[in-house]
Design a protein that fits this description.
alpha/beta, 15 strands
Length: 448
Amino acid sequence: MNAHEVNFDGLVGPTHNYGGLSYGNVASQSNSQAASNPKEAALQGLGKMKALMEMGFKQGVFAPQERQDVAALRSLGFSGTDAEVIAQAARESMPLLAACSSASSMWTANSCTVSPSADTADGRVHFTAANLNCKFHRSIEHPTTSRVLRAMFADERRFAHHAALPAVGQFGDEGAANHTRFCKGYGDAGVEFFVFGRSAFDARYPAPQRYPARQTLEACQAVARLHGLSAEGVVYAQQNPAVIDQGVFHNDVISVGNGEVLFYHEDAFLETDKVLAELDAKLGKRGGRFQAVRVPRSAVGVEDAVRSYLFNSQLLSRPDGSMLLVVPEECRSNANVWNYLSGLTAGSGPIREVKVFDLKQSMQNGGGPACLRLRVALKEDELAAVNPGVILTPELHATLTAWVEKHYRDRLSEADLADPQLLVECRTALDELTQILKLGAVYPFQLN
């Protein structure tokens, strides 16, 4: 049966702002408190979705979260009407209000981990929502994320959904940002590659000293068990602690994989040769031919990789077997990175084309093309079972563009988060969006 990899891109929410909330994410921190443009951010994301759809790739849409999160503020002791809760939080703890107003759910690579049916023991596609417990503003996402996923992938015969792992540091889970899958074809049994920053229970593994390691080995192992993955189809690798301390907060900031190809920085992993040999052996047993494309530090330093988000790119398979690399505009403006990419595509390797997108609004908050998308490999019958309302078409793109133009502000500062009207605007927009995407009631204000 034919299979496709579908990219479900996060739709940027109406409260997109630069709160500087993500310690360890250089771009997020360096742009803290700058004014954002939610409308431009959403339209930039929709532009990328439309372009890839028109190039023949399967494209879906992932709905944003309800923000401000008044329920989270209430759980922290603020009280009164919704407007009173927001006003009190603004007076007494603006950082908390900013955290509860974050639009970071647009980075759907962190929403969950996905295992295709070809890999799982029960032959279903498995989803485990990420607990994102390293950062408060993201740790409050997973209940809504789970409801949205169930509304998108509702057929229990084909899709299995798991709750987030325990919300403690030992099981820190950041979702697909630290997970890649290698396979000969998207419908074939593959090898799932889990990358972790530290071990919670085994002191033999080193850990970064400056910035937190957000993904634990134990979380990766738990997800593999939940999804029914076999030992022959899993490889675990530790991210290099030294690059985490240079701002590589997720593996998808230092490597990206697709099909039989891993595109990675020389300094991405510990015990790199051992990791590559295991990937090669296990993929070979599943009929694939593993190819590793190494970017040397002499050509692109880690600092250049972090500033340009070279590896936070989408690696996509063309029908002819060649691969396209989707990168942000920042790659073109970085001389070292662009020189490297020019040489890469001129060579005889698997990556033959680079496509550049302007995603400045997302990039300034610390997320590039790969952060914005969740990859789901689906066989034909599984794709047919996905809620059709979330699959992008020219008509849906036009509808969503008009929806953004109608509901979104073109400027948002920290002071604007105290405006209770912003919550009204967000709920009005999301209520309309759930009808457009045919999601039903998924938001707290709709359920309560």
